[in-house]
Amino acid sequence: MSGAARLRAAVAALLALLAVAGCGYGSERVDTGAKVVPAGPKLSVDEVRVGYFPNLTHATALVGVREGIIQRELGGTKLSATTFNAGPAAVEALTSGSVDLAWIGPSPAINSYTRSHGKSLRIVAGAASRGVRFVVDPEKIRTPADVKGKRIASPQLGNTQDVALLDWIARQGWHVDPASGRGDVSVVRTDNKLTPSAFRSGSIDGAWVPEPTASLLIAEGAKVLLDEASLWPDQKFVITNLVVSQRFLEEHRDVVEAVVRGSVRTNAWINGRPDQAKDAANAALRQLTGKALPDGIIDAAWPSLTFTDDPLAGTLGAQAEHAVRAGLMERPDLHGIYDLDTLNRVRAAEGRPAADDAGLGVS
């Protein structure tokens, strides 16, 4: 069997396992394989509950939890983790108090903040940028103009990639009804775990998706039509933020500071040891899903991601404008969505400049 054939077989096996283990929008309390146990004095709570996705765009959480970097900052306060398959489930858990902090994408954070009239959450740090590509069937789509009339997948109605796809379609001068996905392009909302099989069967012609789904599709024969980073100034845009419920932030700011500090130090560890960090993230995925990504997939996906504690607040505002233009929401009032005081204390202690909240911070 050729190397490409072995990679396709490994991908098919991985997808079959993921489809069984993780369809839908639920959550699961998980054994993270963390290497560090609580030790030392406790903070203001016995346990802090965090949520994230078993996804490379959430590698800050994958690595920070597994390697014990965040737990070390918490001392005797136990870190407990839950994984989610989509933003709405994570936001629901945050709202209900099932988790205290979560790593989520910008669109779920915007939606939660808007629907709660500014009372649900605060963004307290960035985590990752980039890592999203528009990949297509090269036999059907060779140029952007060929996308018209085709079936393109996004992960979920109103999620971060769905907003980006709808905005790109609108910029081509085409029309799509945002709710149904019908129009000059058919936008097919498809769980990332099912997208590669949908592409393989021919039921979709391409997808606007995060890593590692983009690289999984490429292994199935897809080609990159564009990297979303190419659409942004300096090729930077937020893909994952660290958020906290406002109630938990008010009552346990010491715990939030420990998690933020752990998140910042995790990103520094990732950026300083890229190969070791990639292996740690893949080991975490193996622990969480039952199977690691094939080497060829994670090697292709990893370089497209940037890990940064800067929340890139200006790009969050732009993403909200994209959602408005796409007809997914009314223009939101995002003032107060950021509370970067804790992050900036951590950055100042390391001799780094303050992160900018783009005028959307707590007054």
From TrEMBL:
Main location: membrane
Keyword annotations: Cell inner membrane, Cell membrane, Membrane, Signal, Transport
GO cellular component: periplasmic space; plasma membrane
Keyword Membrane: yes
PROSITE patterns: PROKAR_LIPOPROTEIN
Signal peptide: 1-21
Keyword Cell inner membrane: yes
Subcellular localization, as worded in the UniProt entry: Cell inner membrane; Periplasm
Residue intervals passing through the bilayer: none
Record-level Gene Ontology MF annotations: ATPase-coupled transmembrane transporter activity
Family note: Belongs to the bacterial solute-binding protein SsuA/TauA family.
UniProt xrefs under NCBIfam families: SsuA_fam (TIGR01728)
Descriptive protein name: Aliphatic sulfonates ABC transporter substrate-binding protein
Organism: Streptomyces fungicidicus
